[in-house]
Amino acid sequence: MSLTRQETSDAVTGLGWRLVLGELRACVRVASFAEGATVAARVAAACGAAADEVLRVDLRPDRAILALRAPGEWRVGAREVALAEAVTGALVADGWRTDAGLGGDVRPVQALEIAIDAMDIEAVRPFWSAVLGYAEGTPGDNAVVDPLGEGPMVWFQQMTEPRPQRNRIHFDVSVPHDEAGRRVGAALAAGGHLVSDAEAPAFWVLSDPEGNEACVTTWQGRD
């Protein structure tokens, strides 16, 4: 069943998950890789037959970072929400919990994209696919993606006229909706400039002191 982004976020936020760039993301604090591996096995069991299709787990010595996403989609639905509920329930029963990492000493869950402005997307995309070892994204996405899911997606934004004197590559940093204000404030306090907040809370356009741009983005304002 299709859900709005607001419905999805409302359903999972109380469980410690966040909707970030078309995925549900959460982390589980652990004391070792071995404990993280146990968590990963418990999460996979909770997802059942859907695990291989929708689940990704990134293990670190102090945390397991979880992501749920419908295959070939940049949107989640009722199934992924139900899986998040099942995962959290199973972990809580065994003494762990899912959280988004807000307010901690390490950044919260997030997703990174690199955007490249191009006049001829079809001409430049094969270069980036080759040099990064990436694969073509979903048809219509104008993107290349890491087939192992380690590196950020690179997507191409259509230009209408040449822009040789302005930077043409920027980072899109997708954060939890309740992290965005803090992240924007931190960037401004660190010497950045607000280029535009006309599309906030979908995204804020920021720049460093030399004009290099980055966008802080959330799911809000996109339904």
Describe this protein's structure.
- Keywords: Lyase.
- By secondary structure, this protein is of the alpha+beta class.
- The protein has two domains: 5-93, Gyrase A, domain 2, CATH 3.30.1360; 111-217, 2,3-Dihydroxybiphenyl 1,2-Dioxygenase, domain 1, CATH 3.10.180.10.
- It is 30% helix and 27% strand.
- It contains six helices and twelve strands.
- The radius of gyration is 18 Å and the shape is globular.
Notable characteristics:
single chain, alpha+beta, 223 residues, Glyoxalase_6, 12 strands, Glyas_Bleomycin-R_OHBP_Dase, Gyrase A, domain 2, 8-stranded mixed β-sheet, 2 domains, 4-alpha-hydroxytetrahydrobiopterin dehydratase activity, EC 4.2.1.96, 4a-hydroxytetrahydrobiopterin dehydratase, 6 helices, 4-stranded antiparallel β-sheet, 30% helix, 2,3-Dihydroxybiphenyl 1,2-Dioxygenase, domain 1
Task: Specify Rg, calculated over alpha carbons.
Answer: 18 Å
CATH structural architecture of the largest domain: Roll
| Main β-sheet description | 8 strands, mixed
Poorly predicted residue ranges:
none
First-to-last CA distance = 16 Å
Question: Would you identify the CATH H-level superfamily of the largest domain?
Answer: 2,3-Dihydroxybiphenyl 1,2-Dioxygenase, domain 1
Give the rounded overall mean pLDDT. Answer: 92
Number of helices: 6
Strand order of the largest sheet: 6-7-8-5-9-12-11-10
Number of domains: 2
Structural class: alpha+beta
Q: Which term fits the overall shape?
A: globular
Number of strands: 12
Helix content: 25-40%
Oligomer description: single chain
Strand content: 25-35%
Give the H and E element order. HEEHHEEHEHEEEEHEEE
GO molecular function, one term: 4-alpha-hydroxytetrahydrobiopterin dehydratase activity
Pfam family, one: Glyoxalase_6
Keywords: Lyase
InterPro entries: Glyas_Bleomycin-R_OHBP_Dase, Glyoxalase_6
